[in-house]
Write a structure and sequence with these properties.
This protein is α+β, with helices and mostly antiparallel strands and about 270 residues long. The chain contains 10 helices and 4 strands. Strands 2-1-3-4 form a 4-stranded antiparallel β-sheet. Helix 4 crosses helix 5. The longest helix is centred in the middle third of the chain and has 29 residues. It is extended.
Length: about 270
């Protein structure tokens, strides 16, 4: 009798269970159908547009940079307006360094000691992965050589400087900066190498083209890819580099008397 009095009928039990788990009465499901209001959607859309413009502004300004390192007024206006957010989000990092197409790298060739006969200067190349290790140490020297090259300003003033005082002032600042960087590197070598004379030369390491790689089997360390850069606009690249101008990573390779990579290939192209 006690079991019969306390037993709940199966039909009532299923009804009670269904009513407790019914989606219509579930508080969790009741509040999940809410959506963003039009004003909130508009605000989010504006923020997304602002971020896209900030991502676009820095490479746009870089694309419009001239040889005097001036930028388009429109690009400068957009970059200046978005500058606080770009700096905060660190969207102003370097472009065209590794992508979309990596360009040539640049080296520093330091000639240590007097170059007058019978003396022979000793050469130190920066960077040098055979002596600069770990890789972070090599990378620091690599950035130093790129910094020197990017800071280069020729001793001759630009033609536009004759009519534009701003370009004239910009050229003077850039030239003084380049000389200061070069002198600092020279003084460092004089101190650590205990020499009185140091000559700093900039060298460009080009990338081989498709013909040179697939048909002629050039390596990245091919000596013909190393170009000695002039220090003046009146100078031109030498017709041939001396055999000790640049020492490639592979010491077994000797330098040929050629500074223009693929010159023999270009002559065959109509």
């Amino acid at each position: 009798m006690r079991n019969e009095a306390t037993r709940i009928p199966s039909s009532n039990r299923s009804t009670t269970s269904d009513s407790e788990t019914s989606p219509a009465t579930s508080p969790t499901m009741a509040g999940s159908s809410t959506s963003w209001s039009p004003k909130f959607r508009l605000l989010v859309s504006l923020l997304i547009m602002l971020h896209v413009m900030a991502v676009f502004a820095e490479p746009f300004r870089f694309f419009t940079r001239s040889s005097q390192r001036l930028h388009s007024p429109d690009a400068g206006l957009i970059r200046g307006w978005l500058s606080p957010y770009i700096d905060f989000a660190y969207l102003h990092h370097g472009y065209f360094f590794f992508a979309p197409n990596p360009g040539p790298s640049h080296l520093i060739s330091a000639q240590l000691g007097p170059a007058t006969p019978p003396h022979q200067p000793r050469e130190v190349v920066i960077p040098d992965k055979t002596t600069q290790w770990p890789r972070l140490y090599y990378h620091r020297h690599f950035m130093l050589s790129e910094f020197l090259h990017n800071s280069f300003a020729p001793p001759e003033q630009p033609i536009e400087a004759n009519t534009d005082p701003y370009i004239m002032e910009r050229w003077k600042i850039d030239r003084e900066l380049y000389i200061a960087i070069t002198d600092s590197i020279k003084n460092h070598f004089k101190k650590i190498e205990n020499v009185d004379e140091v000559e700093i030369r900039r060298v460009e390491h080009l990338l081989p083209n498709d013909i040179q790689v697939y048909q002629e089997k050039w390596k990245l360390t091919d000596p013909r890819l190393y170009i000695l850069l002039p220090e003046s606009l009146s100078e031109t690249a030498p017709a041939s580099l001396p055999s000790d101008a640049i020492r490639p990573a592979n010491p077994a390779i000797s330098l040929p008397a050629q500074t223009s990579p693929g010159a023999e290939v270009l002559e065959e192209i109509p």
